[in-house]
Amino acid sequence: MKNFLQAIGQSTRGFMLDEEGAQVVEYALIIAVVSIALVVALRALTTGATFTNFIARVNTCLNGPGPCA
Questions:
Q1: Per the UniProt record, which residue ranges are transmembrane (predicted)?
Q2: At residue 65, does pLDDT exceed 80?
């Protein structure tokens, strides 16, 4: 049991000292904040049905076979 607890302690220390994953998390947080800011800005610029129409046009451009206009 003592060896098991020591192994967990070493793994935990190694995990806490490893900084490779921290950069990925930081970039993900930056992307999330920018995405939220864009959604808020778009909602402020286009309200109600206009925003819904905008989203529908983007969806058509990305997924539909028709032209993007």
A1: 24-45
A2: no
